[in-house]
Design goal:
The chain folds into 2 domains: 153 residues, no CATH class; 97 residues, no CATH class. With 280 residues, it is mainly alpha-helical. It starts with 5 loop residues before the first helix and ends with a helix. It is 42% helix and 7% strand. α4 crosses α5 and α8 packs across α10. The radius of gyration is 19 Å and the shape is globular.
Length: 280
């Protein structure tokens, strides 16, 4: 993600610890990207009885999981959005991203894509519209939809739950100082990918999700966050941090000092170079 030129090295905040976990094999449910986790009996012909939506999945992944779980043609769930009459906030403008709440959903012979999508959104509304979230959002001078958007970035950028509050604080600190967020997770969302490598050209793409070029929050959440990310978004850890980088798995460093951040980035790059060398 960090470029060779000094100008681009100054703009990278993080290497997204969640993806670092994938690289090291320590994969948790929230990082799955291809196959939904289904509850199956030993009989391969038995239909699944539940669908697990992990934390951090994007809407597109949820649609694919629904189609596979219900044995529907690809694209069915996405097309069902228009018929589902989802109870989304006005700011969402009909886009359920952020509101397909990660949880285990029961399946039966009457389950349809529309009913599953409604179940997920209704679950999100119950979780997000209660007093703690609404009051927390108001305390931080934002609405619930903005809090969900921040939580989605926290979910995408954080490897360890213990760091979620600090990542949220970096977001708030940068917003309060009129700084662009410069989160690679938003660019990955714009490009519909998941990668550790963000090029100089990537940071110049014309997209409302390009948080290098655009100020403020992206127009929508970039995934579907879980409860811990939401708590971090409304109660960020106190601190003055403006930068963070996952130097190695389990070692994410936060700082307000730019020179210290550069040293952390240099250590990260050295670790990456070392790990890329073939074994002798």
């Amino acid at each position: 993600m960090y470029q060779n030129t000094p100008s681009r090295r100054t703009t990278r905040l993080t290497r997204r610890g969640r993806l670092v976990l994938i690289a090291t094999g320590a994969v948790v449910a929230g990082t799955a990207v291809a196959v939904p986790l289904l509850s199956l009996d030993s009989d391969q012909d038995t239909k699944p009885t539940a669908l697990v939506i992990p934390e951090g999945w994007r809407a597109g992944q949820v649609y694919d999981a629904i189609d596979k779980a219900l044995a529907r043609p690809a694209g069915t769930a996405k097309k069902a959005l228009a018929r589902a009459a989802l109870k989304l906030p006005t700011d969402a403008e009909g886009n359920p991203e952020g509101y397909l709440f990660p949880a285990t959903y029961p399946l039966n012979e009457k389950t349809t894509p529309e009913s599953l999508l409604s179940f997920m959104v209704n679950t999100a509304n119950r979780k997000f519209n209660g007093a703690p979230i609404a009051a927390g959002a108001q305390h931080n001078a934002m609405n619930v939809y903005q809090a969900v958007t921040i939580a989605s970035i926290v979910q995408a950028e954080t490897a360890a739950k213990a760091d979620m509050g600090k990542v949220a604080r970096v977001i708030f600190n940068r917003l309060e100082r009129g700084m662009p967020l410069q989160m690679d997770s938003t660019i990955n969302y714009a490009l519909n990918r998941a990668t550790l490598k963000t090029s100089d050209a990537d940071t110049r793409i014309d997209s409302p999700y390009n948080s290098y070029q655009r100020m403020g929050l992206p127009p929508t959440p970039i995934d579907n966050p879980g409860e811990e990310a939401m708590r971090a978004a409304i109660t960020p850890t106190p601190g003055d941090w403006l930068y963070f980088v996952t130097v190695k798995p389990g070692d994410t460093r936060f700082t307000a000092n730019y020179e210290e951040h550069l040293r952390n980035v240099a250590e990260f790059n050295a670790n990456q170079k070392k790990s890329a060398q073939p074994a002798k």
